[in-house]
Design goal:
Layout: E1 7-11, H1 15-18, H2 22-39, E2 43-46, H3 51-61, E3 66-71, H4 80-93, E4 97-101, H5 104-108, H6 112-128, E5 132-136, H7 144-161, E6 170-173, H8 191-201, E7 206-209, H9 215-224, E8 228-231, H10 234-238
Parallel strand pairs: 1-2, 1-8, 2-3, 3-4, 4-5, 5-6, 6-7, 7-8
The chain binds glyceraldehyde-3-phosphate.
GO molecular function: deoxyribose-phosphate aldolase activity
Enzyme class: lyase
Protein name: Deoxyribose-phosphate aldolase
Length: 247
């Protein structure tokens, strides 16, 4: 198995989150993009304001590395209009895959219509530009029943509105990697959450993200059926090593 083809190498910290100046953080992002080019990962995930930089570096290196970005990250509470505008800008800057954070807070209070609308319109926008869409559900913020319901909701919106050959291009994604739980509980891609997603999102593919730190974890996720793994430890995982956790 070529694990690198499953790995979305991810750096989503803002300068403030990284405790760095803007210039220092951009230097880190540059290094991350360069590393992903050299390692032959499938895709690099960066914040929207770094998509242009990634595109320039990838074109210059004549690399096939794809670029993904995150929309309404990490809370997902922006209006649909704001999400579409952010995605539109990322498309203009050269993005290949758009990872939208679902408005899971709206979902939790019963506003499923809003989530259905954003999934429909956000996916439509991605498809109009031949891009992949992913919907982050933030499993740590949800009960098991809610994980099941929102995975099925996304699946049903896609099945009702798009042709079968589009299904591989819409993912249900577990986590932002930035959610903070009380008592420091795991905030990312746990095996039980991934299994519930796989069972209820199918035929849509699942992306596991958040807290994946070892080759063994990644391999087990793939064995379970995930098609993509988003991790800030892609290089260490690809080299069969274990990175320190960030929960
Ligand atoms: O979208 C991907 C996540 O931000 C990656 O999370 P991580 O930093 O815990 O690997």
């Amino acid at each position: 198995m070529n694990i690198k083809q499953y790995l979305d190498s991810t750096y989503l910290k803002t300068a403030i989150q990284a405790g760095l100046s803007e210039t220092e953080n951009t230097t880190i992002v540059r290094g991350f993009i360069q590393e992903a080019i050299e390692e032959g990962f499938k895709l690099i995930m960066v914040r929207p304001d770094k998509v242009k930089l990634a595109k320039e570096m990838i074109v210059k290196a004549n690399s096939k590395l794809l670029i993904g970005t995150v929309i309404s990250f990490p809370e997902g509470t922006n209006s649909i209009e704001a999400k579409l505008a952010e995605a539109q800008q990322a498309i203009q800057d050269g993005v290949d895959e758009i990872d939208y954070v679902c408005n899971y807070e709206a979902f939790k209070v019963g506003n499923t219509e809003l989530v259905k609308s954003e999934v429909l319109l956000g996916t439509k926008l991605a498809f109009e530009h031949h891009k992949v869409a992913k919907w982050i559900i933030e499993v740590a913020a949800l009960t098991d029943a809610q994980i099941i319901q929102i995975s099925a909701l996304i699946k049903n919106v896609i099945i009702a509105n798009f042709k079968e050959d589009c299904y591989p291009n819409v993912f249900v994604k577990s986590s932002t990697g930035f959610y903070k739980t009380e008592n420091n509980l795991p905030n990312g891609a746990t095996f039980p959450a991934i299994i519930m997603m796989l069972e209820n999102a199918s035929p849509l593919p699942v992306k596991a993200a958040g807290g994946v730190r070892t080759y063994e974890e990644a391999e087990e996720m793939i064995r379970l059926g995930v098609k993509r793994i988003g991790t800030s430890a892609a290089k260490t995982i690809a080299h069969g090593e274990t990175a320190s956790g960030n929960y």
